Amino acid sequence: MTTAPETDDRADQVRAYLRQHPQFLWDQEDLLHTLTLPHVGRGSASSLLERQAQVLREENARLHQRITALLGAAQQNAALGLHLSDLATELLQTPDCTTTLNTVITRLREGFQVEEMALIARAPMADLPQFLPLDQADFQEILNGFPLLRAATGLTLSPTLRSTLFGAAGAGLESFALIPLAGQHLQGGILLGSQHPGRYAEDAGADLLDQIARLVTAALDRCLTPC
Hints:
- It is a single chain.
- By secondary structure, the chain is an alpha+beta fold.
- It has 3 domains: about 1-25, no CATH class; about 35-95; about 95-225, GAF domain (Beta-Lactamase, 2-Layer Sandwich), CATH 3.30.450.
- It is built from 7 helices and 5 strands.
- The chain has helices at about 5-20, 30-35, 50-95, 95-110, 135-145, 160-165, 205-225; strands at about 115-120, 130-135, 150-155, 175-180, 185-195.
- Strands 2-1-5-4-3 form a 5-stranded mixed beta sheet.
- The longest helix has about 45 residues, at about 50-95.
- The mean pLDDT is about 80.
């Protein structure tokens, strides 16, 4: 009587032999006629050849999905790079702070599909009244203890602060990010809000926001510098 361990050993030997001789079944037509696999619950695969074809189709489908995802990401990155280049070009041509800020707002909305944004500063800005001055407590809530040096994603805002910064739209926003503006003449930022929970999630990349921050900070510093 064959024991279970002996059966397992023989099965392992058969698998090892077939891996070493993948063409073995090609010449065994009589074996192919009798060799079957049980149904696996997905509607096909009664013969070995059909099962192999099914596996190959599934692998090809998965590979196609991965390639499509990679191509989509590459196309998206190329588009974002183009928008970033356009922003830099336009900022070089802005004659004053008002035009600079309007250019930034327009580009963020149209090029980067920002849904809602709020301009915040640590102190009142006479040349840029669009920036809302916040007290230290509100700034700490936004930054959550982090310095105003790098872009931040996955921010959490209280309902009161959402209403203060975004008005009625604040109640429907689910995720937030900050573009920091830490220049010589401005300490503040552009707070971004989205209705989609994953848009500015904590694990979302902030590199693009950092690049935007450097461009905008340099442009505003230039126009705020006394002549």
